[in-house]
Amino acid sequence: MQTITEEQSKQISDLMKDFIEQTINLYDTLPMRPVGCPADQKTLAYLEKLPIPNQERPLSEVFREMLQDIYASTLFAQHPRSFSCIPSTASLLSWMGDVMTSAYNPHAGCQVNAPVAALIEKKLIRWMCGLAGYPEESGGLFVSGGSIANLTALTAARDAKLASEECKDATIYISNQTHSSIAKALHIIGFCKDQIHTIPTGRSFRMDLSALQAAITDDIKRGKKPFAVIASAGTTNTGSIDPIADIAALCHKHNMWLHVDGAFGASALLSKQQRKKLARIELSDSISWDAHKWMLQTYSCSVVLIRNQENLVCSFAAHPEYLKDAENTEGCAEFWDLGPELTRPARSLKLWLTLQAMGSEKMGHVIDHGCAMAKLAEDIIRKSPGWEISSPAQLGIVNFRYAPDQAMPENALNQLNQDISKKINESGFAQVFTTQLLGKTVLRMCTINPETTKQDIHDTVARLVRIGHACTMPFTLSA
Ligand SMILES: *Cc1c(COP(=O)(O)O)cnc(C)c1O
Questions:
Q1: Ordered DSSP codes for 141-165
Q2: How far is CA 219 from CA 20, 270, 284, in A?
Q3: Of 74, 99, 231, 415, which has the highest C-beta tally within 10 A?
Q4: Could you tell me if 434 and 85 are in contact, meaning their C-beta atoms sit under 8 angstroms apart?
């Protein structure tokens, strides 16, 4: 049965050529466009009513609908003035790799199905393990994102450190800045909330070592079994890095697993200037590292690295009869033996293409640029009257707030900064979200996009300052 007519393949060819040109143009003109284009109510209502048709529709019509009604209202996380969350740094190179990979659609679950993609994935994992300083027996896997990387690593940690009857008494240590995906992962693999100890961080937003030590000692006294610490290498709120070397020493002393959540910050290993901030990361047992955050990749592209690959095999290997003929005969672990996924796309190929085309050194410069832009934002904000730095620039993230009048009550200041964020986002010029630090609402900029210019930073801060003034006019007038 023919699902695509000859006429349609000709049309696909023409439409896609056109699409590629439009995409290049879109990326070229991105800085001139608004960051986000909210979907209009009419379009949403139209799509809501649109049925799944029983019969075919003209392809050109569907194509136009996809472009105008669906993709057109994208919020561009890869826009150079998108500073919210961890923005995307996706480059056209990664997009190219993505398009090419999905065209061939390799099944990257095992080596028999996609032998060359398997080789590339292993080479990249070895290279990334090398950057982390991991030993020969280390390994890892490409996964969809940091959340699944964390889940994969924590499953291996549980199985390596705990007999099943010990699980209910086990305790895990995170900080109050640890990413929410860790608690989710621990929930999925069977731990209760009261088994997770949240360690304070104070003004530095780094895990307090003596509090960690005290919690572990206390738990041992209570008959609990401390088994893992999650250190963050680049927290999502502030970019802070936990004291990895000291935590590693504690883990060693108590025979605990050290997982480093570097979903955001592990990319700093690519930079000669920044990598020393992650000193001793090689002492960890596992690392999460998102390539779709700071290594220019489109979603979804992330890795979980592990000091000893056997730990992944122990947790995830399964040898069902229907896969017997697809298993390699050399006895080495298949990708489906290293994590939760069986069928998976060859996520490594777009990263390979990007690195081959640009070289790893330039990617290191991308990291330096992101850090420099956050520092520039910090410097400008420090010179702006009424503005204060809440957390200085760390790994491309800076937090600050407008507090023009010390007499203003705290909740009014919180609302003021929330309003400033709302107004700049609505303007479409830039996107800056708030977060909470030490109980206060603060503005947060994550400046990792390599296309972000100094001018973008100057213009964005200038706008924030202007909006801040405008928001306080009624306040100052009535005062
Ligand atoms: C983004 C992030 C995650 C989650 O990664 P996803 O790719 O969004 O699943 C986990 N940890 C940290 C520190 C992050 O910044």
A1: EEES-HHHHHHHHHHHHHHHH--GG
A2: 58, 38, 22
A3: 231
A4: no
Closest ligand 1 atom number to CA of residue 300? 7
Euclidean distance between CA atoms 272 and 278, whole angstroms: 11
Residues at CB less than 6 angstroms from ligand 1: 86, 145-147, 179, 181, 232, 236, 261, 263-264, 290, 302
Please name the residue that has the structure tokens 């080789």: 119
Under DSSP, is residue 380 helix (H, G, I), strand (E, B) or coil? helix
Report CA(147)–ligand 1 centroid distance (Å): 6
What pLDDT, on the 0 to 100 scale, is given for residue 474?
A: 64
Best mutation site among 176, 186, 201, 290 for ligand 1 pocket (most ligand atoms within 8 Å of CB) = 290
Backbone phi, psi, residue 208, to 5°: -80, 115
- Cα(153) to ligand 1 centroid in Å equals 14
Query: Which residue in the block uniquely carries the two structure tokens 């204060």?
Result: 388
Nearest 10 degrees: CA dihedral of 98, 101, 102, 105?
A: -160
Q: What is the DSSP string of 431-445?
A: B-EEEEETTEEEEEE
Question: What's the rounded Cα separation, in Å, for the pair 174 and 280?
Answer: 19
Q: What pLDDT shows up at residue 208?
A: 98
Q: Which residues pair with 348 in a beta bridge?
A: none
Residue nearest to atom 4 of ligand 1 (CA): 146
287-330 confidence digits (pLDDT tens): 999 999 999 999 999 999 999 999 999 999 999 999 988 888 88
pLDDT at position 475: 55
**Per-residue DSSP letters for 220-285?**
HHTT-EEEEEEEEBS-TTT--B--HHHHHHHHHHTT-EEEEE-TTGGGGGG-TTTGGGGTTGGGSS
Quote the pLDDT of residue 229. Answer: 98
Indicate left, alpha or beta for 209 from its phi (over 0: left) and psi (-120 to 50: alpha): alpha
Q: What is the pLDDT of residues 344-388, one digit of tens each?
A: 999 999 999 999 999 999 999 999 999 999 999 999 999 999 999
**Three-state SS at 48:** helix
User: Low-confidence residues of the chain, pLDDT below 70?
Assistant: 474-479
For a pocket test of ligand 1, which of 142, 238, 264 has the largest count of ligand atoms closer than 8 A to its C-beta? 264
* CA–CA dist 293, 310 (Å, integer): 28
**Rounded Cα gap, residues 384 and 376, in angstroms:** 13
Residue where the block lists tokens 């995409």: 23
CA atoms of 247 and 336, how far apart (whole Å): 32
Please give the distance, rounded to the nearest whole angstrom, from the Cα atom of residue 180 to the centre of ligand 1.
8
